[in-house]
Amino acid sequence: MRLEGSCHCGNVRFRCQAYAPVPFMHCYCSICRKTAGGSGSAVNLGARADTLEIEGREHLGVYQAKIREGDGGCRVSSARRHFCTGCGSALWLFDPEWPELVHPHASAIDTPLPEAPERVHMLLDSKANWVGVPQGVNEVHFAEFPEESLEAWHRRHGMLDET
To answer: Which segments of the protein form a coiled coil according to its record (predicted)?
Structure first.
């Protein structure tokens, strides 16, 4: 599925081909919560990095999160979170550990997206106490990471674009 996205102020526009375009996985980790804003979660999609086209590249900023380790230390994440330096909109995540992938934030996508048959709420151990998490039959909860990948979830639901 071809996705088109932009920041709030319009300085950055982008396009890419998404093989996993359904916004289903809500991440409540402190990084997503603090960099993406909104309800306290971020929703990333799966796209092919080699299809990413960008207009307004000069307005892009990149943030690499510092991750606290259990021993009190800290490491810098390899993931690069791209955002607009004009308005601060979170746009996509790219991690060189998986160079073939890019993960656009659903909040930045202007193309209508498919509706998810279920929603996965992950890293709930990190969510802010004021954030309410939807409950119900099609709401799946994980304290940490789910074992099922973004691709596997799309495949299981018949929503993976393998073209």
So the answer is: none
CA-CA distances (angstroms) from residue 160 to 13, 99, 117, 120, 125? 24, 19, 13, 16, 29
- 137-149: pLDDT as tens digits: 999 999 999 999 9
Contact 41, 107 (CB under 8 A): no
CA distance 65 to 76: 6
Task: Give the three-class secondary structure for 22.
Answer: coil
CA distance 49 to 37: 24
Dihedral sign from CA coordinates of 121, 148, 105, 127: positive
Q: What is the pTM of this model?
A: 0.90
Please state, in angstroms and rounded to a whole number, the distance separating the CA atoms of residues 101 and 113. Answer: 19
